[in-house]
Amino acid sequence: MSLESLGINLRIKLVLATSWIIENIAKLLGYPNNSQGMQIGTNIDSGYGLPLHKPQVPPAPDPNNIFEAVFGNVPQSSAIEKFYYASETEGYYNFFIERYRNVIFLPDWLSRIIQVNFDVCVDTSSLELIRDTLFSLSVYFMFFLQFRTMLYYFVTINPYYRPWSYIISLSDWIYDILFHLGITRRLTFFGFPLLSLMVNAGAGIIADALNHLVFTMPYLPSEGKPITWNIAGAPKDIIVFRDLPRLWYDEPIPDKLREFWYTERPDIYKFMKTQYHHLDMDILPDRILKQIYESQYSHHPIKAFTENTDKLKALSTYMFYDLPSGSHDLSHQLIDQSNLFVSSIVDTMGNFI
């Protein structure tokens, strides 16, 4: 038997053995009686059947200049687009996104912290800039990881000499951390290290997840409602955020936004005042509220006297019910409370003068 015939026989046996293994695995899963295929999931809320948002990471090669022809395209994120719309009944900050299976939102508690503590309310451009920057860094980090792995295939190159050592140092820090955690000793397959593959895959997962991340300010992510709308003559599954944001009811509306309504968008101010006047919400900016407060107290001394009277009543209650039991302490307490009482009366009378 010639060497060519031996190779053909080995190839046929390998194909037959592979087909036998696949067929027996399929029989364990119900083949050939399962005509519908293997069941993946039955939960409707899981989003099964919805389209996937499929940005390519890293981006497809499409060079427009010499730099991109040599080093590849500059990585740009392709995040899920938000479509804003205004309504006379729902408000001016409503928006919707197309409903994907792999859309990612921040948790409610993190979105609340960002909005309350960092004053990020309607304009999310700063967050989107951070997201796009992290995406670009992740893609470049993947490039350095791949280049680092490729260097070890060239036996004539010592990667720990300049200039290769500069590239190695950009990615070695992650391996140093994993080495100190003891992970490098476990990620091997027949002596072949799998750590570089795992780190590269992790960077790709992070970059891909950033492409699916959507910021929902001023709404919390849980306020989104999945519905089906007729858009451009065809039904489409979307997630809509509309009406009054919950955070504007739980927390004060940011003063910069109220100032913007009052000075530049009186239509929004009128809408908020008309629709939500029955709620305990401050629609006017802080400077206007302060002027109103000061004007009320300067032109209505009766209110000031009433408030001081309430304080006097509370003070008298404290004097007669919460005094200490000792006679020596009692005398001192009476003298001190009397002085406070007289001072309060003098201050109150001074307001009338």
Protein model, in words:
It is a single chain. It is built from 12 helices and 8 strands. It starts with a helix and ends with a helix. A hairpin with a 2-residue loop joins strand 7 and strand 8 (234-241). It has helices spanning 3-28, 66-71, 108-117, 125-151, 164-180, 195-211, 246-250, 255-263, 266-275, 286-299, 301-321, 327-352; strands at 83-87, 91-98, 104-105, 188-189, 192-193, 213-214, 225-231, 234-241. Strands 1-2-8-7 form a 4-stranded antiparallel β-sheet. A two-stranded parallel ribbon has the order 3-6. Strands 4-5 form a two-stranded antiparallel sheet. Among the domains are: 3-39; 66-214, no CATH class; 300-352. It has 353 residues and is an alpha+beta fold.
Strand order of the largest sheet: 1-2-8-7
What structural class do you assign from the helix and strand content?
A: alpha+beta
Question: What is the rounded distance between the termini?
Answer: 124 Å
Number of helices: 12
Which term fits the overall shape?
elongated
Helix content: 40-55%
Task: Return the average pLDDT rounded to an integer.
Answer: 77
Major pleated sheet? 4 strands, antiparallel
**Cα-atom Rg, whole angstroms?**
35 Å
Assembly annotation: single chain
Task: Assess the beta-strand content as a share of residues.
Answer: 5-15%
